[in-house]
């Protein structure tokens, strides 16, 4: 069983002996996975982001392809099935998934261009979800800092002053028993926070 950590307790923890910090430390050392209490991010924001993603993925393919990510957009945008984002060489090619990478645009101080009409709902939902997830991440960083014997704000001050944090929305097609929607892999970056609906999600391998 993946342990459940109280996010609110992490956010207010002051020492390595705090029960929430002890639980987080043990989870990271023993399996590398943990769950955060639902108070970390309101369920309404999770549901809003998932509903908006479902709405986008339900659009016709030719419409979705108009919003493909590229080097010019920092790869923000849509990636269709077979779009080169296979997670594992063990997967049957291509993996049966499509995705949309949402991230705050690089504006260099200029106002960001408004999203296309068909992306407006997705952009609005992802924006508030992203902000809430950043707050949840700060609670985890506080717990990790304390667990390593540092000041509560140590990791945030070192790695989170201008975070490169994205929302990756993924839709998986049904697969046969012998197929994989997403092969075994290790994510890039420092910390991955997963949300799913209806008990579905990736399997965790220690």
TrEMBL record:
Residues 2-110 form the Non-haem dioxygenase N-terminal domain. GO terms for molecular function: metal ion binding; oxidoreductase activity. Keywords: Iron, Metal-binding, Oxidoreductase. It holds the Pfam family DIOX_N. InterPro entries: DIOX_N, IPNS-like_sf. It comes from the Eukaryota. This is Non-haem dioxygenase N-terminal domain-containing protein. It comes from Emiliania huxleyi (strain CCMP1516).
């Amino acid at each position: 069983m993946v342990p459940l950590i109280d996010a609110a307790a992490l956010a207010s923890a002051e020492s390595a002996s705090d029960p929430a910090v002890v639980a987080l430390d043990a989870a990271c050392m023993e399996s590398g996975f943990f769950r955060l209490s639902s108070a970390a991010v309101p369920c309404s924001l999770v549901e809003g982001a998932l509903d908006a993603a479902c709405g986008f993925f339900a659009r016709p393919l030719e419409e979705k392809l108009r919003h493909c990510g590229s080097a010019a957009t920092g790869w923000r945008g849509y990636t269709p099935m077979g779009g080169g984002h296979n997670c594992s060489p063990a997967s049957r090619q291509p993996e049966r998934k499509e995705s949309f990478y949402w991230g705050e645009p690089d504006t260099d101080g200029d106002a960001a261009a408004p999203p296309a009409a068909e992306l407006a709902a997705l952009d609005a939902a992802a924006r508030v979800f992203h902000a809430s997830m950043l707050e949840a991440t700060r609670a985890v960083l506080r717990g990790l800092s304390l667990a390593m014997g540092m000041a509560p704000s140590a990791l945030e001050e070192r790695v989170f002053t201008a975070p490169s944090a994205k929302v990756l929305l993924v839709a998986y097609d049904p697969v046969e028993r012998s197929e994989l929607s997403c092969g075994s892999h290790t994510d890039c970056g420092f910390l991955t926070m997963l949300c799913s609906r209806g008990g579905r999600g990736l399997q965790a391998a220690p």
